[in-house]
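User: I'm writing a tutorial on reading structure tokens. Could you give me a worked example: one chain, its sequence, then its tokens, then a sentence or two explaining what the tokens reveal?
Assistant: Sure. Here is the example chain.
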Amino acid sequence: MAQELIRLESLEGRLLFAVPKKGRLLQASLNLLEGADIQFKRENRLDIALVKNLPIALVFLPAADIPTFVGEGRVDLGITGHDQVQEHDAGVRALARARRMSNEWDTNAAPANGKPQGCEIVMDLGFGVCRLQVQVPAKGEYQQSRDLIGKNIGTSFVHLAREYFARLELEQDGVTDPALAEGRKLRTKIIELSGSVEAACALGVADGIVDLVESGETMKAAGLKAIDTVTETSAILIKSKAPSNPALVDLIAARIGGVITAQKYVLCQYNVPRERLPEATKITPGKRAATVMSLDEEGWVAVSAMVEKKQVATVMDELVTVGATDVLVLDIHNTRST
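And here are its predicted structure tokens:
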């Protein structure tokens, strides 16, 4: 009942922002929203949360469904994996092919809700980095992906797996004409699995799998090895092609972009003799340029520049060698930087 009250009374005029409701992307997504000062309280078991300080409603959805809701214009923004967007797009292509083959495809037909279909990638969010890989038993007979043609493949990424093995079959058969490729029946059997895909080979369900791999430890424990990578993926921010409030979408994107930049950089400040300034700014060029100010001491300047966190120790060492003193490194909590 509470969910219905939120739906009926409180969503009017709010931009809808889809967030993964569980899984590997959830906590990092929540941290990102917090850093962007998107304030909300999610009531227990509710999949909609109203943002307190902006006209936004967060909608918690399975990551695999978010590209569909954004692509159809049902929600304006979403955080999901690039792999999920690719799987969704592959599904759309499969549906289009099926309709063309059955003469049901109408190129002049308008979308059911009158909105442009599809989603646009706003930015890579830098977390949830994985690889969608073809995995086979480590002690088995299969050494390359084409060895699996005609075999059983277990996966939750059925559309990407079908496209991948369709390309392999075309290469094996020497088919280069797209017209001849249309409508060919896939010899490889793609078996849809919703969970524990890594167990499919051991249980005799599949000869190989196509699944997401982060560290690879789970696959090794299941007795599997990778023989190819279908695609690399990470979390991304996507938007509808016709958002209800484009200005608010841009504001949220700017805030999130600022958080991501702040996570990657620190502010390095130091004093250096003016005669050594060219050498120092070569070490710390900044994102656009270093900030240089004269000190109240003849021949000295103060310099501020953004430096990548992963390089900060080396940068500090190099600054000292060119005569820099009072080298400080400060955290950046947020920024607006392009």
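What the tokens reveal: Confidence is low (pLDDT under 50) at residues 1-5. The longest strand covers residues 224-233.
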